[in-house]
Amino acid sequence: MSAPLSVDVQNVSRQFVTKKGQTFWALRDASLQVQEGELFGLLGPNGAGKTTLIKILSTLLLPTSGQARVAGFDVVREADKVRRVINMVSGGEHSGYGILTVRESLWLFSQFHGLPSKAALARIDELLEVVGLAQHAHTRINKLSTGMRQKMNFVRGFLNDPRVLFLDEPTLGLDVETSRILRSYVKRWVKEKPGRTILLTTHYMAEADELCDRLAIIEGGRILACDTPANLKRTMQDEVVLRMEVYPSLAEPQRLAQLPGVLRLVPDRGQNGHQVLTWGLADDGVIGTVIQALQQDGVRILRLEKADPTLEDVFMRMVGRRLTDGNGQSNHSA
Amino acid sequence: MAVETNAAPAPAGHSPAVTWRDRWQTFRLSAWLGWQVESNWADPLLFAVYSMAKPIASALILVIMYRIIANETAEALFPGMYVGNALFMYVGALMFGVSWVIMEEREYFQILKYIYLSTASMYWYLAGRAVAKFLITTLAVVILLAFGAAFLDLPLRLSQVDWGLFATVFPLGILTMIGLGYLLAGVLLISARHGSGYVESVAGALYLLCGVVFPLDVLPGWLAAAGKVIPVTYWLEGLRRALLGQSFAQALAGYSDGQIVLWLAISTVVTLGVSVWFFGRMDHVARSRGLIDQVTEH
Ligand SMILES: Nc1ncnc2c1ncn2[C@@H]1O[C@H](COP(=O)(O)OP(=O)(O)OP(=O)(O)O)[C@@H](O)[C@H]1O
Ligand SMILES: [Mg+2]
Predict the structure, then answer these.
(1) ipTM of the complex, rounded to two decimals
(2) Do A37 and A52 fall into the same domain?
(3) Helix boundaries (H) for B105-130
């Protein structure tokens, strides 16, 4: 028998009405299963439907159709039961009782969850230490920076030792070092505590790659693929990924994308302002053709590498565009 | 629930039941939080002025108006009017105290969704948040009544108060107001804007319909009839009898004390039942529209 499912999503759709009165699907026929003990990721660009799914699973939003169960409970009919065994953290928001101190606020939540007061305080202090907020334990929340609030919010998510924890972009906007600390805590937590499950959303592909046992790639409200990071990247084995920095920029990338053997060409702006071209090629033999074509167009190649495929490449192949718009906004240290 | 544990949690399909202890705990914590929010004034003097001086001033305006009219009827009605007006402060404070939490937590603290996920019961949480308002209002009401007894010939003597009636009637009215607070909280849950407008209009309507500063008898028949199904009307009547030993409206003078208590109890139970049901419905609507964590863009 397989382990029980922590999250079971069956054909869930969610429709919204825009301000102009049009309806559209933020989530379309999504299905996924997360096993107990898994650290599962939802990877997708802005507006993909990640938060929508998290809200449905955490009982804050009803699905338009379909069914979902968390820890065995129906998220619509048994919302109360679901709430007793989960917790949730959303990144990039500004929540908190400004009038309370960090420690008071966390204590309050620990009490709402019914934890013994003394043990809860010990735990809070320990977690504050982990996220580097200990020296602000007695600071009023309205004196905290956004990042500090986020760290506090992160701690709140772990207070009740939830069976299923939803992390919606937990490292959004945090600095590299803090992100690294939170990621390693997340990883350790789910490994060391039996029976806990984490469902995490992110649009940092390196974060998804590093953390997740399995992940779903989601775009336009649909789940496009669901597998381990390694397996997803393995689907790229039949092609060669070539990344190059060029100058001047290639004027008509669409034309070169038509070359025989070129499966894909995604242009992007690099960190130093030079254009970066990512090619998906059928085999090594096409590399020569590509270089020649660029020379004919008077485009110089400044840097060239045959890259190992990343999740980003998997995403580009599936969707035809980059996951994150622009470059260098990831807080994932190299 | 153990805190530092590496043990496996209860198996899937098992969720700890909500106990009365959990609900009481929620209520207590919420009351503590409400006090922190309420007393968050930089200057305690300013706080006192705001929460006491304002109601006292508005009571005095009424006194002056009654004195200007200065006929026999006005004279006879004065005690009932004065007490009614003082006690009505509870209605506004509690309805506001319970319902405004929704706006405050969602818009200002942006924490409503986390409260939803953490507390055993939203009802107990909302009621708890109003405790601080209740205490402050009690202080203001006591000051107002003492002032009336000392300087305005209000026939209120502690030795003559019917404490048994008072102790029966008073808590029932408080329950009613918490119920009305849930009703408004339900409305606020699904309406981001104009929140305070709703609360104020309901308070205004009750001020008119429940015979607060003039007896029900002066209202047109259908308005008086509406007043007679609202528990606040019986609450005020019962408390006037307990405190002053006299009725206010002719319309209610024929009722025995027992009947007043009975009507108050029945209408309180109905109000609470309807409001709990209504809040549950609006909660469902809010979840279906995605409003639990909605923040109005400014
Ligand atoms: N309450 C709402 N009313 C109308 N549209 C909504 C609402 N909530 C979300 N949407 C829309 O649904 C779509 C999916 O949004 P969602 O927040 O799930 O995306 P996301 O994957 O979390 O994106 P991001 O990476 O930006 O957080 C978006 O187009 C968004 O505008
Ligand atoms: Mg999101």
Answers:
(1) 0.89
(2) yes
(3) 112-118, 122-129
